[in-house]
Model the fold of this input.
Amino acid sequence: MREVAIAGVSMTDFGVSENTCVEMFCEAGIDALNKSKIEPKNIEALFVGNCLGDFEEGQSHIASHIHAALGLPMDSPAMRYENACATATIAVRQAALMVGAGVYDVVLAGGTERVAAMDTPLATRTFAMASNAGYSAPTGITFPGVFAMAAHMYADKYGIEIEELQKYMANVSVKNHYHASMNPKAQFQKEITVDKVLNSVMVADPLHFLDCCPFSDGASAVVIGTKQKVMEMTDKPVYIIGTGQAAGGPIINNPDMTRIKTREASVAQAYKEAGVKPSDIDLCELHDCFTIAEILAIECLGFYEFGKGYDAAQKGETRLGSKKTVINPSGGLKAKGHPIGATGAAQVTEIVEQLRGESGKRQVEGAKTGLVDTLGGEFGTVCNLILRSE
Amino acid sequence: MREVAIAGVSMTDFGVSENTCVEMFCEAGIDALNKSKIEPKNIEALFVGNCLGDFEEGQSHIASHIHAALGLPMDSPAMRYENACATATIAVRQAALMVGAGVYDVVLAGGTERVAAMDTPLATRTFAMASNAGYSAPTGITFPGVFAMAAHMYADKYGIEIEELQKYMANVSVKNHYHASMNPKAQFQKEITVDKVLNSVMVADPLHFLDCCPFSDGASAVVIGTKQKVMEMTDKPVYIIGTGQAAGGPIINNPDMTRIKTREASVAQAYKEAGVKPSDIDLCELHDCFTIAEILAIECLGFYEFGKGYDAAQKGETRLGSKKTVINPSGGLKAKGHPIGATGAAQVTEIVEQLRGESGKRQVEGAKTGLVDTLGGEFGTVCNLILRSE
Done:
């Protein structure tokens, strides 16, 4: 495999947009191309993540329409990927595998999503279609329910009072809002307090409203190429040194929700390929769709032993300035926002900017190696990428 | 690039099914694995095409659920592709590129689709989402309208009376129904006549009901691997010797609908890679979503000069037994059926079985080289594959 690197990265503001999925992707895509000093005519393939564009705005076949709007050459293929919340991470990974294997030299990858025209019940219902329609969905399960069960299972397994766990979880939210307060692209740039989380409305016991990430509009795009090509586009290449992906289907395949087997399988592939271990990771953008999800992830990714990660945020260990691995310096899904089909590419964008020292007030000092972690569905897809600057 | 070959292929009966998209894919997938004498645990990646499973049965994230239902190993990634009618062809092509480039040695690819729970207006409306939602869709255009316009443009350009063109088009339908009458998997295994086509209800002038392909349920799957791996699985390997893919977005990028630029771009890639020319192709499964579409395709793929293909079916040149390239020996989309996200893999299945001499009454004698052609949206995606037996 050839060395694969990232040139320009970009994301739209996350939040509520008046633009379509095509328009948002083009905003991020054109910016990423400009930063890479590359013209559309030189892009050899387009990898687009999108989950619910057909539901939200009546647009399927979106990769082809984005391709045309960007003015890419007709000979350059356009593919749409959909793998629940891990959609864009997978679009980026497939692009990287193709470049690494020699199919293409320079491609554009990313994702786009919009929920602006949906109310919360419709958004919740359509997002829940990523769970198993035949077996899980008929139980009435939605994702807040899945992660509420995971929180209860965690509390029970490790002998933590649920009220105590709620405080630990609240600290995750407070930390991620703090990080987002320094991120001009984030949906919520306002700090919150533990009390505010605990006093917010209950969504799915024990998860309060402020334990949950928002529905967001947004897009993100990255230019990926061979080392040689990327060296022509930027003097700060960031390398994709390891990737992983695993599939698990319905929740029954991950019966112990405190220890997600698909994530263990995926990140093990990435660590092995990269030749690094968890302690080598300076910062990680991970899938904090709910605060409990961040706690589960930091354990499963190897930053903490199982059952030992719950108080990491409270102790400040995952916060900017910590000497341990900084978790979600962007603000994470919780505060930066979570446009489903775009999230993975935005995680990549954050890591790349951090590794280039371009993250302003929220810069993780001396960051050299970063991990992307995205989870889809009821743990049915996990995708990881390890990035390193030279 | 390594040589890429196909081992087992399979498809469900096309028509109306009581099974879900997951179940249909598993039916075809297990059959393809069994024919390849390979166990699920040895499949390294899954490439699934599906267009509207979220609309039809509330199931997105379908690749992961199919992966689990098939019992593939957790380490093996599962990707869903959506590119309108070309969805499964692209899933197969991406799989072939990955195998050729050395990422995987053996994978499973295909597609699945179900419209059973939709009535015709809803199916028409949701399928039309593949056109450009911002510019084409607001004109009220649906796909019968697109191809009706193409038929008028063709008649006008080549000075053919529209009533005459209707008869030529009817002959395409008659020929494809004749082929399907010998295909036990086809949705319509009944022969029809030119009069029957011309007397069927008008759908979009000049296209009668029997000029239009049906909405279908079905799935198809193929096992793809390196030459070496496939030689262990079958003594009749079929090689993927050339592929192409092009993107064009909205209809405005193909203003002359008699000459589809995306198709010209895509098939030129495939011919070049394969080192063959149109006259080398013994049989072709192409995108006859409407009868006029077959006439446009046989010209664009190089079997006929532009403006000279309209009477090929009437003259019997594209019919089984002809010494020229046999077109749609399976019955095509028109009579075999068109489960959107599965169609490309079923086209591959037909060509592979033909090249192996396993097509029974509809066998194209001495077939060595076959072409797959699938068109998505308002000409916004075209994908081609050239297959050859040894």
Q: What stands out?
A: The domain at 4-118+216-239 of chain A is CATH 3.40.47.10 (Peroxisomal Thiolase; Chain A, domain 1).
